[in-house]
């Protein structure tokens, strides 16, 4: 192998900036135990969605949409009507007759796009092509580098960055030449400069090449990007994605050095011809027309639902509710809310972000790590510390839990000892026999934790929150859900979460936003704040009067069984016992109705209410269950409006519902917060499901049955693969026969004046990018009807 690419002196240029621009294209990922749904194209938000898709095809060979057969089936099945196709063609600026659009789609075949990388020009060997060999090796290397918990022989990487670790491992393996590796600088910044001068790329081509390389190792690229993201939230510098990009670029340089003369000429011609650049193709516009028609077909039905006469505010105001139940905006809450309102006219429901405005870390008693209880896009500001009520009791509990964990850790170490590998099963096997039998019979019922008691402290410094700070949190929560007066006697804050067993992807079912954590802790903290007399006095000074007759309680909705339990039920005073008892009866009725509605999608039709509950409870305990529930599958819309806009409408569990009353938001600050936080989170959830369906090999997690967990909580690999799988397992979007998620962009409906919405768009760059570049659809509603935001104007929807 001879080095034919020149070796320059290392100097200062813009190479590091170009590498950073490529890394910005990569969306972050989160650990399994803190999982959040991620928009896989977040780095492309400032591009039009069609333009981003073309770029991805040119650099990875995969776009964003379904195969033509999917849209043909929707056409022949009547899902897409001719009127939808005509409207979509007009919206996309395509002037073709319907019949021609159909004929062209029928003839369309997948284009084979070869990225313009030197690694892709190396002739395949018996072990696969050079690009796959390189990414396979780097996947193994990243697994060793980042695994500080699970590996049997852990690698000591402390103080060594990823780039230097690769250099230390870069012996004569595959395309890695020891002689070439020895020419590379010791730090990644200098190496990036070196490689930029050694390769025949312009600055823009360098960014395109680095992006293409990262797209061929998407799992570990996303992990590194996520580590950098989380470090930045804590104000810490981190450049792991830049280092991985530099490593990949070094492999590209070595591949270019290894190319025979004729292949090198072809590669350089591809580079100069802009093969990594964006090139529009007539087929691209065609498929986008069909996809837009697919979306319009559902939007037509959705629009008809919203136009049905809804209960007017005066009708609702004519009776005083006994209960106001605030649920997370999660689409699974919509079904339960609808049935709960049907169960009693005395109950109103509201929607609010399920972390209840509390950016907290939860510190349990015992040796467990702190748990982030907030959306992954935010940094925690406070720590909530559990307590039994006294320092001596806390110390005793910590001592007991620490001792138990030490025993467990001893067994873990013994499992991986060189000699105990042969003796551990024989000596301890019988001790585990009952557990295996119990788990196999689905008798491993876990006790649910009770509502935590604790105290709030600042995350840094450890000082308790002052009364004004606690009032700020309480006020922010109430204003965010437009609840500043007319309080019911019982205000219930309903968190939610999934309860499953032996499931690496459990956090993805628990919540799509809040680090995969259930909402019980946040609901309990919020209830404690709102019941506090000092907090209520501070709220009254700010114009929010919570009467003494109003009691705030926390609850949790299990999204597998749809059962709801009140937290701290025994502490409810006699004055509110009747209302609480009636509410529990209504919860039981609503839960049963919700289970019946969901039964068909879970293949459980025909069961009695009692048997259906047993079957769903079994799913929480069955260690072999791969589809305990559908999570947020089939999400399609978000409504930011008063509940009367959607009350009594069957939205089929497809809508995020956030309460918003425009008349209480004169400055527009509440709407700005909702559009820049919950709406963005809903977009991330929506597009992760979208990508996991349309491009499962790139943006999905593959077959859940073949998963192996990496590093305890880092992620999963599939089969004998070495790259992390990002996104959702196939079992979360497909039931074995058909898709359970319809891939379409989120339709957001807001009840607010047009100028107020436009004010937010002008002030929030990311929000404006999502809307104007068609990563979601923005509508507004008022008493005159529905309008859609298009090219800076509002048109009839």
UniProtKB/TrEMBL annotation:
Per the similarity annotation, which family is this? Belongs to the inorganic carbon transporter (TC 9.A.2) DabA family.
Per its UniProt record, the required cofactor names are: Zn(2+)
Q: Give the coiled coil ranges.
A: none
The record, for InterPro entries, names:
DabA
Give the keywords, sorted.
Cell membrane, Membrane, Metal-binding, Transport, Zinc
Principal cellular location given in the protein's record? membrane
Free-text function comment from the UniProt entry: Part of an energy-coupled inorganic carbon pump.
Q: How does it sit in the membrane?
A: Peripheral membrane protein
Report what the protein is called: Probable inorganic carbon transporter subunit DabA
Signal sequence segment: none
Q: How does it assemble?
A: Forms a complex with DabB.
What the entry lists under HAMAP family is as follows:
DabA
The protein's gene is named: dabA
Q: Where is it located?
A: Cell membrane
Residues that, per the record, bind Zn(2+): 328, 330, 496, 511
One cellular component term (GO) for this entry is: plasma membrane
In its keyword annotation, does this UniProt entry include Cell membrane? Answer: yes
- MF annotations from Gene Ontology: zinc ion binding
Q: Which top-rank group of organisms is this from?
A: Bacteria
